[in-house]
Amino acid sequence: MSDFALHKPTTLAEAVDVLGSYGGQARPIAGGTALVAMIHQGLVRPAALVRLDGISGLSGVRRDDGALHLGSLATLADIASSPAVRQGAPVLAQACGLVGNVRVRNAATIGGNVCEADYASDPPGVLCALGARVRIAGPRGEREIAVHELITDFYETSLAPDEIVSEVLVPLPPSNARCVYLKYVTRSSEDRPCVGATALLRLDGNRVEELRVAVGAVGGSPLRLPAIDATAAGMPATVDLFRHIGQAYADQAEPVADARGSAAYRARMVAVFVRRALEAAAAGDVGARRV
After folding, report:
1. How far apart are CA 244 and CA 158, in angstroms?
2. Which phi and psi (to 5°) does residue 86 adopt?
3. 177-290 CATH, one of 2.60.40.1940, 3.30.390.50, 3.90.930.12, 3.90.79.10
4. Read out DSSP for 79-108?
5. How many CB atoms lie within 10 A of CB 231?
6. Which end of the chain, N or C, is more open, meaning fewer C-beta atoms within 10 Å of its C-beta?
7. First CA to last CA across the chain, in angstroms?
């Protein structure tokens, strides 16, 4: 591993200042499950690491004012086991419980997860479907953006080098919403999805009141097509409708090819698993599962 300076600030403002002093050559580090591996492999060579674990107030999980407030240092295990998350957004709790293994979940943080922008991670797509936002601290103060605006491409975000995600804000879904995440895994020895399809559905009788889809593990960022989702409003919740939505997502996906599937195969699986996630939500299912 390359030599680098190590800083442990005690406030967000101090952490932002330290990051800024390195002109983009420093990296914040939380759980380190991804960054440490990248450093060992020579993929990144930071001049300094800025530890965030000495900053108080970044690790809480709470429910307040119609939203879940996830501190950026809350681990995926914290979120998976949180009563507030399990009650308010069970799909998110269960999706966090599907990541990696218990050692990874006990170290990896939700802030690190979204900032890594790993295309084949489970939580980002679920967060996008739920309309989650991130609160960002920087030299010009705080700002908020949607998770789908944070993740811009493969391992790339819209963060400036001297900005830090301090909190993830997840609006509580309406009481009649059903949200399902299907993690499709093609290799038995692999825990990363070939396709991750999230569907949020609200019905008024048998008609769609609201429909939201997000597809992860296919392209550089979770795929959201709000205009396509909006076409379902007022329509009968039928298999034909869900098949149409799934095919529309497949048609607009730009799939990557990797060990888990070719681009053509991924596109086909987008259509299949978007449809299946919507069918499951329409049947009253909630939560996340590996398939």
Report:
1. 32
2. -60, -30
3. 3.30.390.50
4. HHH-HHHHHH-HHHHHHHTTSS-HHHHHH-
5. 15
6. N
7. 37
Considering the domain delimited by 5-51, tell me its CATH architecture: 2-Layer Sandwich (3.30)
Could you tell me the pLDDT band of residue 188, with boundaries at 50, 70 and 90? Answer: low
Q: Where are the beta strands (DSSP E) in the chain?
A: 5-7, 26-29, 48-51, 61-64, 67-71, 133-138, 141-146, 151-153, 156-157, 164-171, 177-184, 195-204, 207-216, 287-290
Tokens representing residue 42 in the block: 């020579």
Asked if residues 224 and 148 have their Cβ atoms less than 8 Å apart, the reply is yes
How far apart are alpha carbons 132 and 112 in whole angstroms? 15
**Length of the chain in terms of residues written:** 291
Structure tokens at 291: 């398939």
